[in-house]
Design a protein that fits this description.
Elements: H1 3-12, E1 25-26, H2 29-38, E2 46-50, H3 58-63, E3 67-72, H4 75-84, H5 86-91, E4 94-98, H6 110-119, E5 123-127, H7 130-140, E6 147-153, H8 154-161, H9 170-178, E7 179-187, E8 192-193, E9 200-207, H10 217-227, H11 235-242, H12 244-252, H13 266-278
Parallel strand pairs: 2-3, 2-5, 3-4, 5-6
Antiparallel strand pairs: 1-8, 6-9, 7-9
Length: 281
């Protein structure tokens, strides 16, 4: 629905966007349908949608033939969705979880975890609330996925891709190990209500066939936490104290002692971490 329709609908229900929950609704129906097409959603796909709001993206997902699990933390919007999308809920094409999609790191909400085990390789398509975007992206690394297309703050897309030195961090390394990531279309503030202060962009994630095995991810996450804990300090001296085996792998790879963690390229980090996994560190 368009801006005025959404405003009137929420007003009738006594609802309003909540800044604390990062609620910025995309109010261009043609753009919403385009996002579903660009995500590659096909009939029969299992799709996880986070923050469905008033169902603006949920409807085109259902029209594409997807089976959708929508997770909404706002009780008022969850109640509205039950009313607006009663038919697909009754038919089982849509399931609704009311609550926070994020469980204890690196898990999701228990009902999302159960659903994920049932469908095995879902897609994730969402206009993500900005406040949970980074933690959610990090949780996707190492998960069995068919693909993900996420509308994010432009700054976070830059961090996820890690092309610039200032953007390179543990999130970029995790996503590089798990996916082929690329930026999609860029969206200006005026296509949202309320208008955010920043531009947004779509991040597409395609799983890598050579991604690390599932059992390796906890170790990788731990190593990256240590490596990037003090980004302004030299990497090797700290790792010699806190993670000597990993420091040895870096030294054998010829990493200079004076380098900081973000000064290693994503490919450098991939080579180092894969070698550490192979050596069973």
């Amino acid at each position: 629905m368009k801006r005025r329709e959404l405003q009137e609908l929420l007003a009738r229900q006594g609802l309003a966007p909540r800044h604390r929950l990062g609620q910025n609704f995309l109010v261009e129906p043609d753009l919403l349908r385009a996002l579903v097409r660009e995500a590659g959603v096909a009939a029969g796909d299992a799709v996880l949608e986070i923050g469905p709001g008033a169902g603006g993206l949920t409807r085109p997902l259902l029209e594409a033939g997807a089976r959708v699990l929508a997770v909404e933390v706002d009780p008022g919007l969850a109640s509205l969705l039950r009313e607006l999308l009663a038919a697909p809920l009754a038919e089982g094409r849509l399931r609704l979880v009311e609550g926070d999609v994020l469980g204890p790191d690196p898990a999701f909400h228990p009902r999302v975890e159960t659903w994920w085990a049932e469908v095995r390789r879902p897609r994730v398509v969402a206009n993500l609330p900005y406040g949970i975007s980074g933690p959610l992206l990090a949780r996707l690394a190492g998960r069995p996925l068919r693909g993900a297309s996420l509308l994010l703050q432009q700054e976070l897309v830059d961090r996820a891709l890690g092309r610039r030195l200032r953007d390179r961090g543990p999130l970029a390394v995790l996503l590089h190990l798990a996916f082929r990531a690329r930026a999609g279309r860029r969206l200006p503030p005026e296509v949202f209500w309320p208008r955010p202060r920043v531009h947004s962009a779509v991040l597409h994630l395609e799983p890598r066939e050579d991604a690390l095995p599932a059992e390796a991810w906890p170790r990788v996450r731990g190593w990256l936490r240590v490596a990037f804990a003090e980004r302004r300090k030299m990497l090797l001296p700290r790792l010699r104290e806190q993670a000597p085996p990993l420091a040895r792998v870096l030294e054998e790879a010829g990493v200079e002692a004076a380098l900081r963690p973000e000064e290693l390229s994503l490919d450098d980090w991939e080579g180092i971490l894969r070698r550490a996994i192979l050596e069973g560190l």
